[in-house]
Model the fold of this input.
Amino acid sequence: MLIIKNLKASVEGKEILKGVNLEIKAGEVHAIMGPNGSGKSTLAAVLAGNQNYEVLAGEVTLDGNNLLEKTPEDRAREGVFLAFQYPVEIPGVSNINFLRTAMNEIRTYRNLPPMESKEFLKLVKEKQKLVEFDAALTNRSLNEGFSGGEKKRNEIFQLAMLDPKLAILDETDSGLDIDALRIVSNGVNKLRTEKNAFIIITHYQRLLDYIVPDFVHVLYNGQIVKTGGKELALELEEKGYDWLKEASKETELV
Amino acid sequence: MNNNNEILERLTTEVYEYGFVTDIEMDIAPNGLNEETVRFISAKKNEPGWLLEWRLKGLRQFQQGEMPNWQNFEMPAIDFQGISYYAAPSKKAKYNSLDEVDPELLATFEKLGIPLNEQKALSGVAVDVVFDSVSVATTFREKLQELGIIFCSFSDAVKEHPDLVKKYLGSVVPYTDNVFASLNAAVVSDGSFAYIPKGVRCPMELSTYFRINAKNTGQFERTLIIADEGSYVSYLEGCTAPMRDENQLHAAVVELIALDNAEIKYSTVQNWYPGDKDGKGGIFNFVTKRGICKGVNSKISWTQVETGSAITWKYPSVILRGDNSTGEFYSVALTKNKQIADTGTKMFHIGKNTRSRIISKGISAGQGNNSYRGLVQVGIGAENARNFTQCDSLLIGDECGAHTFPYIESKNSSAIVEHEATTSKIGEDQIFYLNQRGIATEKAVALIVNGYAKEVLNQLPMEFAVEAQKLLAISLEGSVG
Done:
């Protein structure tokens, strides 16, 4: 589904991604771990098309389509969803109105008619229940006055509503207490299908207790330095990242 | 980022939708302003002597008057002798029924979205339309008359209800008030008049649509609304003008009178031609609007959505004379390109337990300049007066300006006056967030701006809230990044 080849990108003139290679197939969940500053969030931002990041080299295709030449909104319409690490607040714009606009924009792009109100509201109810999202929050202004946990849960609710091909969760677990973490993880697990894929960016192994990945990648200094199964996350938890840093230095020397 | 800037650029330079000209035979007074002009207008309208006298007083006051100098922009030089003060479609001065109205005129208003045919008209809205200097039609007059509601052009009111006009004209905004009010008194050509009798709740929105069409003219209308004891009325005005390279002057006066337990809700959607992207042309909108809560428990509420005009200079105000009376001011003012808005309100607390609420939302884009200017004055006898002011500014891009000039004068120690202000910028992160959900930048900005202005838009009558939302989005098309 998603193929990333030798992706290099910079922000404010500083190169952060230094040749990332990654292939993700439908139905898979990939975890990306790594120490602070290794480029995890940059990868998410570049995939979503944040214009503050400059792509220096490489290619990214989603089902064969070149993603990098598309605008952020077209990437979203193609089925890329980013659950933000810091979701923004937009005062006065109701969550539901925003979602409806988003959904209809995406449908228009796919040559589908706008969704009928009744059908839309039914879907809202269904997805609210699925991801245990408080109905009262649906009618409030988008993220305005939401707690950190509520904002993250709203990201998962939006994810459920928009049903993307590829969902990227950028440190969705940061700042969540254990109950919220469980709710968010349950939501993601329920949304996993044969047809979609997830990239889970996280610092901690604990999220992966709930969302079990097919692959774990370690991103360090702008490159994926190690790939393994779910047991790699446990190994990282135990040993930290230092041994990988050493390993990476050695590779560089070679 | 470049991409967003391009969109911003495009949004701020979008063409004005209502800029067409109606080609129609007009009766136009020669340019210039003197006693002769005033007598000419008065004679055209067959006015009674007292009104001519009042006009002449206005003229003399205007001739000695000085242009205001306290506003936050340089007052443009206006050549008052270079303007024609009367322009009317020449076929017939007044139409007895819509069938007699020039089809070209009907088509014009149809094009503006104001069908004058009552069958086609928005249900629940009675409309008076003013084309340059005269009112051309008023819908639903008979239906309203059954309830004793008078809704007609100002000229008709002078003929048919001289006592009411004589009693209230100039009672809230005297001809001495300011130089534009003096000018208006001298050359007032038409406008709307409404009287709601005791205990009557007006069943439909009353509305006036103002259209400037002719070249080298100004529009100087006068609106007078009287809500008798225990009555209620909601009134809305809208305005547009053709695109012309020279500036045109609009100097209107609106007076509202609310007696005991009466309520007047007055909404404006102002979309005069704003000039082009370089600031050429556009309407100079110098307007004096004031209401008096004369009776106890009365209420006056102003709501304005200001998106047009090269310069807007207006401060809809409320004199809170009756005990327990309430004044409200809700405003959204949007400036883009080189537009200037200096607008706000004045709340004069005179009666006991009087309350006022001010919500002002400024939006500046392009090189627009937006100032909020407000005065809250609490008199010595205004026991327990309360005011709450919230004044927000939203900036789009980095070449625009937002300013606030709040004045508070309190002479009563029991008064509570609160003022809150915020300034924010549409963040790239907000736009990116919406982009990432499939919403393109232009729509994203419209969504953010409408969210920002929601508190004010919610005050508009239903039919117009939707229109105003669209107007804000259209006005911003090409102005956002």
User: Anything to note?
Assistant: Chain A touches chain B through 31 residues (CB under 8 Å).
